[in-house]
Structures are given as C-alpha cells and as structure tokens.
Amino acid sequence: MAQAQQANHEERPHAERSASQLGALAKCPGYRPKPAARVHWVTAQGSRGHAALDAGDDGELHSEFEAGMVETCESYAAALPPASRQLEEMRVETIEGRWGYTDRLRIRADEHGNDSPVADLLDWKFVRKDSVTDAEFNLQGKDYVVAIFEDPAFAFLQTINVHFVLPRLNTVSTATFTRDDVPKLKLEILAVLARARATDAADYDGSTLRPVYGLCTYCGAAGNCVALRRIADGIARQYDPAGYGQSPALPAETHASKVTDPAARAQLQKLAGLMESWSSSVRHHNLTAALADASLVPAGYVVDWMKGKRRVTSPADFRAVASRFGLTTDDLIGASNISWGKLEDILKFRAPRGQKGKAVEKFTHALLFAGAVDPQQEVPRLIEK
Predict the structure, then answer these.
(1) Could you read off the pLDDT of 138-192 as tens digits, one per residue?
(2) pTM summary value
(3) DSSP assignment of 117-185
(4) CATH code that applies to domain 5-200
(5) How is the chain split into domains, by residue range?
C-alpha cells in the first residue's frame, strides 16, 4: 500500500473516477465530470476556505463571511478530543489504482499524548444546499477510510470517525467505521467502479445508464448519452409520428429569392428550421470543446468573454437587503427589471463623498451573501481573430 503524503491543494491532480465522483457513479455509471467554463463563485469560496484551513492563514479570504465559515470549521475541529498529530491535505492511495486527498486527519492522543487507535477524518463541504449524502452512506468518506486503514503507516488505527462539516449550513454529518468494516466497504466501492468501468467498452450499449436530471445537468457525457437520446427520440416521435427520422427533401433550387413554387418553399422552410438547430449545435459543441482544451479552438478563432448579467434569485431577500441600504420601494419600481446601473447611481448619489464606490461594493456583497442574486459572470463566445 502506498504511504500517505502531503499535497498542495491548488496543484494536486485528480484521479479518474475519484472518491468525490463515486456518489454520482452510483446513480449512473456513465457519469463524467463536465469541464467548467468558469469557476462558480461558491466553488471559489470553497477553494479559498480549504486553502485557509490547510495553511492556518485566512489572508487570501475575500470577506468576513468566508472567514466566518472557516472559523466554524476550526471551532468544530477544536471541540473534538485532543490529537497527537494532525495531517492536512494528505494524499492516500484508494483501491483499484486510484488516489485521493483527505482534508484533515486527526489522530487522537492517548493519556500519554501518543497516537491512540482512534482517528477523526474531517471533510469540509462549502455547499449552499444540503446535497451531501450522510456520512453513514457517503462513498467518498468510505473510500478514504479504506485507504487509511490499508496504509501501513496507520496500521495501529482501529476506528475512524468521519465528519462532513457544512459551515455555510452550520450542520455536520458523522459516522464511525472500524477496521472490521473494510471488506464490506471495499465491496461497495468495487461494485460502483466495476459498473462504471464497463461503460468504457467500445461495444457498450448503454443499458445500465440511469438518467437523473440533477446529475445529467453536470455530466460531461450528456450530449452523447445513449439513454438521454432514447428519451429524446421517444418524445420526438410523439411530436411527429409520421416524419421523425426521415431525411428532408432538398429542392433543386435552394436560393429562396428564386423559388416560386409553394411546395418548394415549404421544403425550404423545414430545412431552415433544421439548419438553425444544426448551427446552434455546432456553436455549442465548438465552444464546449474550446473551453475544455485550448488545442480544439477552431482555426482562426479565439475564445472571448462577454460581460454577463446579474439575476435576482430571491425578490424577498433582495428587497430586505435593498431596504438596509436605504433603497425604497419607489427606487426599486423606478429600476424595474432590475436596472443595476440606476440602483447603483442612487446609492452613489446618497453616499458621502469618498464613500460612493464602497457603498456600491458593500451593497453587491450583501446581496451575494444573502443569496438574493446570482453574481455577474462573464459569458464565453468564439470570435474570429
């Protein structure tokens, strides 16, 4: 078994079908992580929080809110029994040739301050909603537990307590595993991995795929998924029982200005709809490929980032935050559909000299922390050089 070793949180690589993906693979063996065009702000907060907890330094945190989440994690860890030693961001070798990184492993101290046979495995989850599976069933935690028990460096351990700490929600999920649990845990993990690896075969027919909306939305294989295509085909046939699957007829003349026959114009009208769908698909897949791999950017094009739009997600929270900053109902009505520029101009006008920019910045941060808006994010597009 490989010796556990320290790793830098920002630079660490990721194993294929890693511990964090096991839950998704249990739901559908064909799941593949989707490359993100841009890091979501919640993910960015989580990365900064992890880095602060690893280093014991909150200098890179962006707000008091983030510092508060880190403090929640540290306070929970501090309330656990004393530790003889503590290991941060430790690489462990998981079964079936994979690896992973634990957030924090605390070896409990015995009465003499030496290592005891009990450890606490803490995993920080900076999620916005309670989407983390309970520690008792969570395969990520089980994968790490097996890796630690099977590492010779921790042969003295007999019990590991797993703690999933959710500081944004102020909740914790815990479970206790012993060395006797290892065979059962390994079998659970192997069952998920074996079914997932079967989808790699060239002749795989997709029969074990299990579409789940909340999972498919984040799956990088959704565009080519056999199971989703079957669903789409079934819907399409209901919409067009007679024509679905038939190739459209192409008239002799395709320049619309030269076509006078109504039947030929009807053919062109149908083709126009198909071309719109096709062109949309081309743009989507070209951009997705370009964002995932710079070598796949179409020749003569570059990826450009346009300024996106902020969106109100909770009108009630938005009004509450706006009220705290002195914005009235009339102000909001005057900025219907929300005109961010108008609201920011009002705040600047009312703020004291030298505080105008800070007033807008504080208002924006307050809306984000209240969950009243989605942040303004840049939108990618392909443009010619």
Answers:
(1) 999 999 999 999 999 999 999 999 999 999 898 999 999 999 999 999 999 999 9
(2) 0.64
(3) EEEEEEEE---SSS-SPPTTT-HHHHHHHHHHHTSGGGTT--EEEEEEEETTTTEEEEEEEEGGGHHHH
(4) 3.90.320
(5) 5-200, 211-246, 248-298, 311-379
